[in-house]
Amino acid sequence: MVRAVVCRALGAPETLRLEQSPSRALGPGEVRVAIRAAGLNFPDVLMAAGEYQLKPELPFTPGMEAAGDVAEVGAEARGVAIGDKVIVKMRHGAFTDEAVVTPAQLTPKPSTFDYAEAATYLAGHGTAYHALIDRGRVEPGEVLLVHGAGGGVGLAAVEIGKMLGATVIATASSDEKLAIAKSRGADHLVRYDREPFRDAVKRITDGRGADVVFDPVGGQVFEDSMRCIAWGARLLVIGFTGGIGSAKTNLLLIKGASVLGVRAGEAVRKNPALGEVRLKALLQWAEEGKLRPNVSHRLPLEDYAKAMRLLIDRKAIGRVALVME
Known about the structure:
Layout: E1 2-6, E2 17-21, E3 31-39, H1 42-49, E4 65-73, E5 85-89, E6 98-101, E7 106-108, H2 115-118, H3 122-135, E8 143-146, H4 152-163, E9 167-172, H5 175-183, E10 188-191, H6 197-204, E11 210-215, H7 219-225, E12 229-237, H8 249-255, E13 258-261, H9 264-270, H10 272-287, E14 295-300, H11 304-312, E15 319-323
Parallel strand pairs: 8-9, 8-11, 9-10, 11-12, 12-13, 14-15
Antiparallel strand pairs: 1-2, 3-4, 3-6, 3-15, 4-5, 5-7
Helix pairs in contact: 3-4, 3-10, 9-10
């Protein structure tokens, strides 16, 4: 019997249920993966609540990414063998003991990562890559302001931004989160409750402002960001965990600034070539030890609601993983 977290009614994490069902037979071109760990992302919470842009038919299993071992290879499935250690990319369905997928959804697990790290790598770091490289086009020497730097995608942006040669200003809500951001390369640290970040950015840059703003928070944070940007700045809209902000067109005009939406997954579906370049780079950087997700919590599958609450309550530092035992 296979365990899976199932959403039968939209709502809070506690409305989900851990259910068991028989393994299903493989179809042509399919592969069975024994899941060893699954990564949590904020869209999983939104999807279960019916508040995400993708709305799967009920019932469904949340979870966008996982890692494990190939356990069975169906007829016509090519390029994969039993025993391969892989990352599994999904739109949903990862919170389970096993997944039936196609070879196209599999990526080799970096040898430098354990399963929890592998299961929490591609979504967060892929979003940061797409934001900073494809959309923001960060250049060496530019100032990058990263909001929510203690979260999974924010911490990934700190790592990649520093690797690209930017001066990174990290903002977060606690000293503990900022300490991790510093360990991943942040040059300047700002706690939201100690100094308005717009004042801190002006102080750090001698009044010039940030060239690129990485914003997964939204709301007032987005609106205040427009008041501490340099000429030609790019404001990257990653998400809106803090609400939906309004773009003041006069501020954007005065600074010659751009607001850019970031949807890493959709960008690849529209242009698969983008995804190939991104994946190759991320895997290479992982093998070289340049990037590594910070997994602050590893919980058993049955604690899925507690794990999702860590994201909602912003208690995670980096990533959270469900670990199958």
